[in-house]
């Protein structure tokens, strides 16, 4: 039995989807444990590119079960869209299960997210406007609607009758929204969606438990990254779920002591979408190089991502928080062709050197990064299939990262395709 958790070690978009698909074939079950359609996981395989917002990235392994577990928030229309897309391509393997305690993202959550962001003006979070925050807020206020409610029309109708008048009052009186949500229309829409979703609904806990008890291997695929965690990220510029390894336990019912391996994923540089502190952010040519070569545009929103150097202080923080036993370093090829490559090794404030940070947004915003500099390498790294084919400068950079963060760098991704991956023998 193995429980392997893949977590993002930055502000999301680290390449977790590619890694989950790459490793996924070796597992009996792949589980997504938090977040919703704010995530955008890209998988490139067999010459085709797939972008999933909700489906676990291993869904393309058709002989392999995937579970959208209880910690997720699920927009039913988006989910059905993703299922239909795979069905149309003849790639649907009937291999999806959905936890009954996951929450439904309702149309009023999306409206609330959009209107609230607009009302904040310059102080907005920069959310993906997928209704994630309002849906999780309702979950904790105990006014949410769970996926399992789709199996019980009477309960579903009652939940809507209890909640919708409050939502209408909020939307009208706080945000000046001039529409009116109707219980009948929402109920009708959900009952139609239930025809597709209800047959997939299971108990997350029972499903995972019975597999683990039979000795199965489970892969937990995180969304977003540690620096966007609701408690341990750069609050308030975070998402509304637990993106760290502990979130895999909360979202699935797997006990912490059952996790056997945790792989942190980080790009060889840093990106961020949305607002908030970003000490190593670059403008000008370096940012353009990273954005254009790395196609750094949001998968969900299309927004250009902010780009900067790898921040080893933040990476160390994320790897410890997540209990990572190893690190996968992605998009290394994007740095090909730069004359100099840099990485943050400390910060400075008022002449004082700071080597650890708890990533409060306000604190980070006041820090100036201290960089280590490395000679660049010409590339193309994308052609490499073993470490021996790397430029010596690239190997030196990876060795430095490994030595700084204190966990082995075991997987290097040199391109978006499945086979553009180098497994690294551990040398230290
Ligand atoms: P929300 O999750 O849509 O509420 O957005 C909150 C913050 O998290 C914003 O800064 C988003 O840009 C960021 N965010 C949410 N999901 C992702 C993701 O999958 N990748 C990168 N950033 C994300």
Summarize the structure.
By secondary structure, the chain is of the alpha/beta class.
Protein model, in words:
This protein has 428 residues and is α/β, with parallel strands linked by helices. It folds into three domains: 2-100 and 201-258, 3-Layer(aba) Sandwich (Adenylosuccinate Synthetase, Chain A, domain 1); 103-197, Adenylosuccinate Synthetase, subunit A, domain 2, CATH 1.10.300; 267-423, Adenylosuccinate Synthetase, subunit A, domain 3 (Adenylosuccinate Synthetase, Chain A, domain 3, Alpha-Beta Complex), CATH 3.90.170.10. The protein has helices at residues 16-24, 76-88, 107-120, 132-141, 153-173, 183-197, 204-213, 245-252, 284-293, 312-321, 361-365, 392-405, and strands spanning 2-8, 29-32, 41-45, 48-52, 65-68, 73-74, 96-99, 103-104, 201-202, 217-221, 261-267, 269-272, 306-311, 326-330, 340-349, 352-354, 368-375, 409-413, 421-423. The strands form four sheets. Strands 9-7-5-2-10-1-11-14-18-19 form a ten-stranded mixed beta sheet, sandwiched between helices. Strands 12, 13, 15, 16 and 17 form a five-stranded mixed beta sheet that branches. The protein has a two-stranded antiparallel ribbon with strand order 3-4. A hairpin with a 2-residue loop joins β3 and β4 (48-52). The two termini are 27 Å apart. The model has no long low-confidence stretch (mean pLDDT 95). The structure holds inosinic acid (IMP). Inosinic acid is lined by residues 11-13, 38-40, 125-128, 130, 132-133, 223-224, 228, 237, 239-240, 273-274. Residues 11-13, 38-40, 125-128, 130, 132-133, 223-224, 228, 237, 239-240, 273-274 line the site of inosinic acid.
């Amino acid at each position: 039995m193995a429980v392997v958790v893949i977590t993002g070690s930055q502000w999301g978009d680290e390449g977790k989807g590619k890694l989950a698909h790459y490793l996924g074939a070796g597992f009996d079950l792949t589980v997504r444990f938090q977040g919703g359609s704010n995530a955008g996981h890209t998988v490139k395989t067999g010459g085709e590119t797939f972008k999933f917002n909700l489906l676990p990235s291993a869904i393309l392994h058709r002989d392999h079960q995937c579970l959208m577990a209880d910690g997720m928030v699920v927009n039913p229309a988006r989910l059905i869209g993703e299922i239909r897309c795979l069905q149309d391509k003849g790639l649907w393997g009937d291999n999806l299960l959905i936890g009954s305690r996951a929450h439904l993202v309702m149309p009023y959550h999306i409206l609330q997210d959009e209107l609230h962001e607009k009302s904040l003006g310059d102080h907005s979070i920069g959310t993906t406007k997928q209704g994630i925050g309002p849906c999780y807020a309702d979950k904790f206020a105990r006014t949410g609607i769970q996926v399992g409610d789709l199996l019980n029309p009477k309960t579903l109708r009652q939940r809507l009758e209890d909640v919708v008048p409050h939502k209408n009052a909020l939307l009208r009186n706080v945000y000046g929204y001039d529409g009116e949500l109707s219980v009948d229309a929402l109920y009708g829409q959900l009952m139609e969606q239930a025809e597709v979703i209800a047959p997939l609904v299971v108990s997350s806990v029972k499903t995972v438990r019975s597999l683990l008890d039979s000795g199965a291997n489970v892969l937990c695929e995180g969304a977003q990254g540690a620096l966007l965690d609701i408690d341990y990220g750069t609050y308030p510029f975070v998402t509304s779920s637990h993106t760290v390894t502990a979130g895999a336990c909360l979202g699935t019912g797997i006990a912490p002591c059952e996790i056997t391996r945790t792989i942190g994923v980080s790009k060889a540089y840093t990106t961020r979408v949305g607002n908030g502190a970003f000490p190593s952010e670059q403008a000008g040519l370096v940012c353009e190089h990273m954005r254009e070569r790395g196609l750094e545009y949001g998968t969900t929103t299309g927004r250009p991502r902010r780009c900067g150097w790898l921040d080893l202080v933040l990476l160390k923080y994320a790897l410890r928080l997540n209990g990572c036993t190893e690190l996968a370093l992605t998009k290394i090829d994007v740095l090909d062709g730069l004359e100099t490559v840099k990485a943050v090794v400390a910060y400075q404030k008022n002449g004082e050197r700071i080597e650890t940070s708890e990533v409060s947004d306000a604190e980070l915003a006041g820090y100036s990064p201290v960089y280590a500099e490395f000679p660049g390498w010409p590339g193309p790294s994308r052609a490499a299939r073993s470490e021996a084919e790397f430029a010596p400068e690239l190997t030196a950079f990876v060795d430095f990262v490994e030595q700084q963060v204190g966990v082995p760098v075991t997987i290097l991704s040199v391109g978006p395709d499945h086979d553009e991956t180098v497994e690294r023998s551990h040398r230290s």
